[in-house]
Amino acid sequence: MVCFASLAQAETVKLAVTDLVGLEELQREFGAFKNELAKVTGYEIEFLPVTNRTAAVEALRFNKVDFVLTGPAEYVVMQKRANARIVVGLSRPDYFATIITMADGPYGTVADLKGSKVGFGEVGSTSKHLGPIQALADAGLEPQRDVQIVNTKIPVLWEALKRGDVAAIGMNHQNFLSLRQQEMEKGGLQPGAFRVIARGPDLPHDVLMAGSHVDDKVVTVIRQAFVEHSDALIAAILTGKDNQKYSGMRFITNVKDSQYQYVRSMYATAGFPEYADFIGD
């Protein structure tokens, strides 16, 4: 076993999480995880809030942050622009994109969506934007040409689908299940009112990334902590209310760049070919 305290020597490392804005939100969702990681490594862990994905990339490029917890789409950008390394993957169960229509509507297949308006979530999101676009492409459409794409917040998309303002919406499967459950619980539509007409494959892991400036020794200590203290670190992550998307997760230490080639295909499909190049393992 690695002796974390002797290696760490009270070094301080800075950590960012890309889908959270503000120190208060970071502390609420990942405060317990930060404390547990500090406990098992001997490092002092400091949060660095970032306003968006672009800010996280720039922070890595200019050595303002040491580690970033992020999603598959962000990994592709960070690997290319900041030459960041994967420390560990966070494998999420049932993490894939779905295309949803109303069951009583005219859109029973992806082909039926041609010429219609389709709604997705935040631009750049792996499972709410890029994943659904690729699901359409995998089913035979050319999303940039065959449908009119609108991007907005997921709750807005849900209401737009029910009103018929859009023919279909794309989102994370877990988001769909949660919204469908909420709909039923508030006395609205029953689950059978909605139809999934396409789904993508399980998406690659979320990842903890290290900047190119981070010493190899530090990366080794952090990675080993996830191996030897997996249960405690997972439990700490799951104390965050919004982190329940990680329920049932496990840490993966042999993540390969080639596993993200499907994400690069998403970027090409969505009109961002600059992030479609394969790097290799």
From TrEMBL:
Pfam families listed in its UniProt record: Phosphonate-bd
Keyword flag Translocase: no
Primary localisation category: periplasm
Keyword set includes Aminoacyl-tRNA synthetase: no
Subcellular location: Periplasm
Keywords recorded for this protein, A-Z: Signal
SUPFAM superfamilies: Periplasmic binding protein-like II
Source taxon at top rank: Bacteria
Database matches in PANTHER family: ALIPHATIC SULFONATES-BINDING PROTEIN-RELATED, TAURINE-BINDING PERIPLASMIC PROTEIN
Family statement: Belongs to the bacterial solute-binding protein SsuA/TauA family.
Protein name: Phosphate/phosphite/phosphonate ABC transporter substrate-binding protein
